[in-house]
UniProtKB/TrEMBL annotation:
Entry protein name: Uncharacterized protein
Lipoprotein in keyword set: no
Superkingdom of this protein's organism: Eukaryota
Start and stop residues of the TPR repeats: 39-72
Length: 225
């Protein structure tokens, strides 16, 4: 999916997860009539509900968007994230695979597909069907992609970006934690995802993934205090 930012608060080279739906989705809404416009409105509601921690409610809205305008499914990476946190991993993997098939440069969707399939089949089998995507312009996501695809050291990922920008540290910490979660290492996952959530970027950014870090902690019962 292609995402764009609003204002100057979120550098477009570092964040693709903002409150607005995709450019393609909005274009479909402009050219598809009332149902398509209602579908985009449903996506907006779903994203807001997810940010507020209402993951089941967000999925209801995302599914409503697809029922109103089936073209939306190709862009609904948000739906895949909601499915992951509802433990509906098979459906989540299907959503991410559908998204990458339509948009073959989506690094994060490839990783999230792996995360879903690792919960279903284990990391070794999930890695054998890892989705190939184009090169991400963000150094932190290139490193994260290679770590998930080939195996690697999450601690080294975080170390490499600790002294870089706030957003890079956030993403390194988030994906280090998610890597540990895929391996069933709860304590390590908790440490890094809490760090991402409490980071300057994680606590202040409009980035959808900053909201996701908080949702992750709430879903796992981890206190942010």
């Amino acid at each position: 999916s292609r995402f764009y930012t609003h204002g100057s608060r979120v550098p477009p080279s570092l964040s693709r997860r903002v409150l607005l739906p995709t450019v393609s989705g909005i274009w479909d809404a402009l050219t598809g009539g009332a149902y398509a416009r209602e579908a985009v409105a449903a996506v907006r509601r779903g994203m807001l509900l997810f940010r507020q921690g209402n993951v089941p409610g967000s999925l209801v809205e995302f599914d409503k968007a697809i029922s109103l305008d089936p073209r939306q499914r190709a862009y609904l990476w948000q739906r895949g994230l909601s499915l992951y946190y509802l433990d509906r991993f098979r459906e989540g993997a299907e959503q991410f695979r559908f998204d990458v098939a339509k948009n073959p440069n989506d690094t994060e969707e490839s990783i999230w597909c792996f995360l879903c399939e690792a919960q279903l089949n284990g990391v070794d089998e999930a890695r054998t069907q890892f989705l190939e995507v184009g090169i991400d312009p963000r150094p932190v996501m290139r490193e994260a992609y290679n770590m998930f695809k080939y195996g690697g050291d999450p601690e080294q990922l975080v170390k490499s970006f600790t002294s870089r920008s706030e957003s890079e540290y956030f993403y390194a910490s988030l994906y280090a934690g998610l890597y540990y979660e895929s391996e069933g290492k709860v304590d390590e996952a908790k440490s890094h995802i809490l760090a991402s959530c409490k980071s300057s970027y994680g606590s202040r950014s409009d980035d959808y993934m900053a909201s996701l870090a908080g949702v992750h902690c709430r879903c796992r019962g981890w206190s942010l205090d």
